[in-house]
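Methods — Computational structure assignment.
A single polypeptide chain was analysed. Its primary sequence is given first, followed by the predicted tertiary structure written as structure tokens.
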Amino acid sequence: MQKERSEEETRRIFMQWKAEHGKTYSSVPEEERGYTMFKHRLRDIDRQWHDRGYSALSWDKERSEEEARRIFVEWKTLHGKIYSSIAHEEHRYAMFQDDLRSIDRHNAGYAIGVHSSTQGVSQFSDLTMEEYSAVCCGYIPEGSRPSPAELRWLADIRERLRLVYAPSSM
């Protein structure tokens, strides 16, 4: 069952984002049109999250540790992530949490009209940008000649990830 935000919570989020982005309106009717757009966009983002299998709402500036953990557990299940140790899992959770905060901020910006697209967590949400680049952008086209330093960099990152994930998660 999909969670629904209260009108009060939605209005609170709208006011926070309006203040953070210095958004002003020339009249009350204009602000109400802005709020209506915000409310519909936020509802659409929440629905997308629910359709992807997450029980939490898409954005909450004051997301609790418990809710972030629950999203992480759901995300691990959806993407078959299994870590080789508790220490690796905690480290990856910290990166996931940073990514989740960034996504939450972006999606609230979309809802208020600051951004033109939404973001969501993906199978890469527990990677650093460096790791993501190596995993997703580390393809070496046939005929190209990467430097020995580039090849070592890719090998180092791939080895680091091999040690982080349990074999069934790779």
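Note: The chain is about 60% helix and 0% strand.
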